[in-house]
Write the structure tokens for this entry.
Amino acid sequence: MFRAEAKGKKLHFDTEDSLVGANEVFKDRETGSHWQQALAAATDGPLKGAQLKIYPFLLTTWGEWKNQHPDTLVLKPLPGYAERMAGVSKFIRRGMSGEGAAPKGAFPLDHRLRPKEIVLGLETGGHWKAFPLSGLRKTPVVNDRVGGSPVVIVHQPESDTTTAFDARLKGMVLRFSAGNPEASKLVDEQTHSTWNAYGKCLEGPLKGSQLKQFILTPEFWFAWSEFHPQTDVYGLAR
């Protein structure tokens, strides 16, 4: 999810009928520049080298989103959307199984994970790390580092909602554990404050504090690794 603006220009995009590394390429109408989806960057044309700003977003279920944002607006579906959803949902579930080879045209593969393993990619300070979804389903709260930054990753298994935060606050590096089986509540070891899965402190000495959120990018492993070749992988050595 990108801000449709670069170098002071508001942009409108169309999908091109071409892939690079089995990854979508799109073109802006204003300058004709081509953009690589995985990099959010222009690869040729007048805007070559420009980077689109990624908006914070959350991949979650409608139930979890509505619970957190009861007054949300909803994009009205186009005619025929409901009829197509059964087949689309089945295709998505099959795609998230991790089974199968990378699409034809993908760059040379990094074999540390299966090509279609779903990972949540995180970038901070020029460092990249991939967190396999299969691992997060077993360990819903992960305290880790990406480059020099301490991070906490929170996975709510019921909705497969995953969030990430900078674990630094008020001069402390906080370490968290799940406060319930759903990981909808967390407890930090330093002050024993209670937090929700969205980085907000609900009770305790740090009540009212908000952790800085990181943006997680959900991708197949083949896509994340080919465009982030220096990436680390949680649970694996390079």
Residues 59-238 form a domain with the Rieske Iron-sulfur Protein fold (CATH 2.102.10.10).
